[in-house]
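Hi there,

I know you've been waiting on this one. I reran it after we fixed the sequence typo, so this is the corrected version. Both the input and the resulting structure follow.
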Amino acid sequence: MKIQPCPRETRSLVHRVPIEPELDLHTFAPHEIDSVVGEYVSAAYAKGLREVRLIHGRGRGIQRGIVQNRLEKHPLVAAFWDDADSHLGATIARLVQDSPGRPEGQPYD
């Protein structure tokens, strides 16, 4: 019996992720990580969170690199660092504070 891969268009799923201070990325495919992290950070900021923890696992560091590369480029991330308690299995990101003149929680443009 041969298993046929699903057509590309049916493999793309919409994930509904609760916006909480921590996101476990193990449930996402590697090719989704960059966009998931970008959208999660924006949604967390809009919800009023100012620090988030992204669990990517230890492994060979590939997902950690994807996560940290995305955080480095995201305009809402003020700083990020490895979570020392996770032995390189998670990254913590501090999001920017609201700037004067912009309503609290309004999405960043």
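Quick highlight: The chain has one domain: 19-95.

Best,
R. S.
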